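Internal QA ticket QA-208
Title: Verify multi-chain structure generation after dependency bump
Assignee: T.L.

Test input:
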Amino acid sequence: MTADQSAAPPYVQFKDVQKSYDGRHLVVKTLNLAISKGEFLTLLGPSGSGKTTTLMMLAGFEVPTHGDIFLAGEAIGKVPPNKRGIGMVFQNYMLFPHMTVEENLAFPLEVRGIDKATMAAKIKRALDMVSLASFGARKPAQLSGGQQQRVAVARALVFEPRLVLMDEPLGSLDKQLREQMQYEIKHLHENLGITVVYVTHDQSEALTMSDRIAVFNDGVIQQLSTPADLYEAPVNSFVAHFIGENNKLPGKVTAQSNGVCRVALTDGTEVGALAVNVAGIGAMTTLSIRPERVEVNPTAPEIANRISGTIEEIIYLGDHLRAFIRAGGTDSFVIKSPNRTRSHHLAKGQNVVLGWKTEDCRALDP
Amino acid sequence: MTTLGGLAPSKPSSSDTLVAADGTPLVRKLAQVTRRARLKAFLLVLPLLLFIVVVFVLPIAQMLWLSVNEPTIRQDLPRTTARLATWDRQELPGEDVFAALVEDLKDARERQAVGRIGAMMNHVYSGARSVFVGAGRRTGSLAAPYSKALLDLDATWGDPRLWIMIQSMSQHTTSIHYLNAVDRTLDERGNITPVPENQRIHIWIFWRTLWMSALITCMCLPLGYPVAYLLASLPLRTSNLLMICVLLPFWTALLVRITAWIAILQSDGVLLSSLAALGFVDMDTAKRPQLVYNMTGTLVAMVHVLLPSMILPLYSVMKTIPPSYARAARSLGATSLTTFRRIYFPQTIPGIAAGALLVFILSVGYYITPALLGGKDGVLISNFIALHVESSLNWSLAAALGGLLLMATLILYWLFNKIVGIDSLKMG
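Actual output:
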């Protein structure tokens, strides 16, 4: 976080928040999280990692067992959900089935006692925003999944909430529609300047949309950073493995200096890596290398690390080839080779040399 | 050509009729292929279909037929029936009708059928039994002119109403029983007229049945709604236990439950004795409020018996409403009361309608509970139907009352379908 950001109080803040449902296990373990105004923050993690519980505590549907949550400087722990002014988009849209689209949008305005004329104007603006202006009189059941999703977003925004929460909103859409909606939500966020907290277990969705991503596992934020940092510079092997494709090579640290270490792999080969998360010389570590950073039969001299291996399997994926290689003590070392004419020399059973730069290989916790 | 699922074009022509690979039209080919499956399906339901037709549809149809067509008079008084068929009801029937009646009565006497005729006529004309039996006994000594002879015997033979009733009862389709069922009869000119005030019972009982059923429904709804909500929202283990408690009345014999209510509600029963011991009611059993063998008893026991019929349809509808709707409403700014009123309640309306319809229809035709607990003023229309079937042996009237009940139920069902839609009816 930069200096000027830390000077202003964060818009949303979790302070030492813990949550337990049964009194024996903590679902959320001492969570500290600050979200600035206008940010798109994604809580990413496998199911059961505590990300949805965190969102529900923010929405007011779950009460923290310990700690405080602040919204715009005000502690909201005792504020009921209807008084928090937080818009929410649910996984299965949760449009009220007995009301038309317009009535659904009018609902949050009616309960706030807004007059008819203002209400009509706001509803119209919200429907225009999601390009559904002519669908106001329809019932939710008469809309497609994508349209229902847009109405749900419009409903969460129509009353101009202080914060918008989205709980896996695109989970029930097919892939193509999901990608389209990702862009739409991202653009809405950019155009309206709203603060969004988004929950998903889909890492590509998180990478596409977010300003920052908080990766959850086991009730703890493993890493909180921008999408690029998360992919390029994971701080532990969970993050490295959870975000994108990753090769894990177990090994032992034999030397360490200036942030770089030498690691002996299980087959005895020694390679260099960035010492990101290692305990010291003699400690076990897991090397993390992205498949696309591995070069087959490298010629460039700056590719310092080279190991040899045998191609076990090749999968043709159109724009690239994916090869599983027995090398460095594992039989499923993955490489991605762009589908250029040069790639076609790869064949099953072939012996190859794999090479990568030291800065592309990160030594993480075992 | 058979049409299947709208596949067949309305005017088949060679250009727009799809054909299968072997040249037969696709529609016919499809029918051939599916015929076996359809035949199999039909054979599977055939036993049940036959059973229902034999033990349910036919008896009910026969009973309803009896309400417009009672053959006794037509068969026992064939000559009179034939002569009266053309009678215009303007003045007393002529001598030929009287003569035919005497001839019929002579025959009937030999068959010992006069009592039966008298009893049958007595259902529609009080006092007719003694008139017929008296005439039947003297048929041997009667001589022409028979009109005078019969009138001398009993002046009632001069009442055109008696003849109108004989004519009505001998018709192939008569409305007289339905008129009776709604406390109407025919006057001496054959016009529809209300029966004397002291004989009007059916309309009153009908109203009471409908009113009691409505009351029972209105009591079941607020009692059942929270229970159904609990059932739908509690965790599975707890809700299963609660479900067993709800269904327990279903598994207990009806008679046991009713007897239990008698033991609880009677004037020296559990409830009033406890209240007396606490000083709320008098120690003298004669001065205690009467809770059983009247409307109160019927009401309490029927609400208890029919409560599961309200809870189960409500539960099945509530079970399909995800709790996230309430969360969505709350996050949009609604208080819990508004959330219930505007979001939850409207979605349970199909369940309310189904439960109310079920309870209402069941209580309209309920017999055993009011019969045992109703005493004099707690009986319902079904108890009257039973009375006419068992004691007064006026089956035609019983059939007419039953027919009206059936009609009321069908109208209710039609209204339900019109307003809520029968598709939304879900049971358990």
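Spot checks passed. DSSP finds nine helices and 20 strands in chain A.
Status: verified.
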